[in-house]
Amino acid sequence: MEFDFTWVLLGFPVAFTLGWLASRLDLRQLRIENRQAPKAYFRGLNFLLNEQQDQAIDAFIEAVQNDPDTSELHFALGNLFRRRGEYERAVRVHEHLMSRGDLTQPERDRAQHALALDFLKAGLLDRAEIALTKLEGTTYEEESRLALLSIYERSRDWEHATEIAAKLDSASHGSFSARQAHYLCEQALTAAASGDAARAEDSLQQAARIAPASPRPQLDLAKLQSQLGRNQDAFATLLKLQDTAPQAMPLAASLLGNVAQQGGQQAAALAALERSYAQMPSIDVVEAIIKLDSNSAAPRDHYIQHLEREASLVAAARWIAAEELGNPHQHGLLQRALDKATKPLMRYRCAACGFEATQHFWHCPGCQAWDSYPARRIEEL
Description:
The protein is mainly alpha-helical. Among the domains are: 178-190 and 199-241, no CATH class; 264-344, no CATH class; 347-381. The protein has 18 helices and two strands. The chain has a two-stranded antiparallel sheet with strand order 1-2. α2 runs antiparallel to α3 (71-83). The relative contact order is 0.04.
């Protein structure tokens, strides 16, 4: 049987036509997918600008499905999940990025940083710490150290916090000397509570050397020296405070008065307190002066002098308490009302968040800021 070449000649055009149709279909599908991905991306961006996070997430998921190799879409999606509080989904997105072998090193560092933020926001501090320590030597080193500092403060790991603060300080990322001093003071409190007074004093002396203008190391040192019965040392420490941090004298006034009375140095302490009051009037300094003044009329005189300088309801209430009014019953009623009115004025207020407390804090319980409480009461601000 002879082979008919006619079918071969007819087959070439048919095969060419089918191949051309197939290529056109593939190109059309590719164009559709390429159009869908940017369209979904821009739709998600529009939702995000309008603060419609749910719709933005749906649009970005669609974009990722159409173009699964685009890392930027994964970063956008993971960050959205974190902002919405869906930390598990954010972790899965960023861990998927970390598992990819085609990421460049900068993208891998970025994914590691995003993963650490996921753990930090979720409250998984141990996992966040591990993730952040892996960013040493990267472009995210400073941010990771600041985040580690926050973790160590929240967990009260003062030794590691001191190490990180020292690294930040040596890297010229601002001054962290005051923060280091606070960490050493916290370590001193722990040591003193456990009965290791020598270690506590060493930590406080180191804190005073690191931050000589910070009042806390000297105040805490004076308290420790007083507790150990070393009133002469405590008195000298408090007098030094008047030169290095005079704004903190209202916090030291009561302790200075007590130490002076126990060491027989009332006259020197009284002179120091009067100098401090002349620079910055304070009801706490007035109270310490009254305690040291042997004059029987001291309370009334000093409160009146304070009222001449400051319109103080607290001083007025204290003056009335020291006076003898005609009707004792009415005097008691008036005094009780004044005490109630002045009680809120004797609080301290955080300058950063406004949190009020009856005691002075170096570390605000509300916003976690350091040195945000002025040494003066609310009435005096």
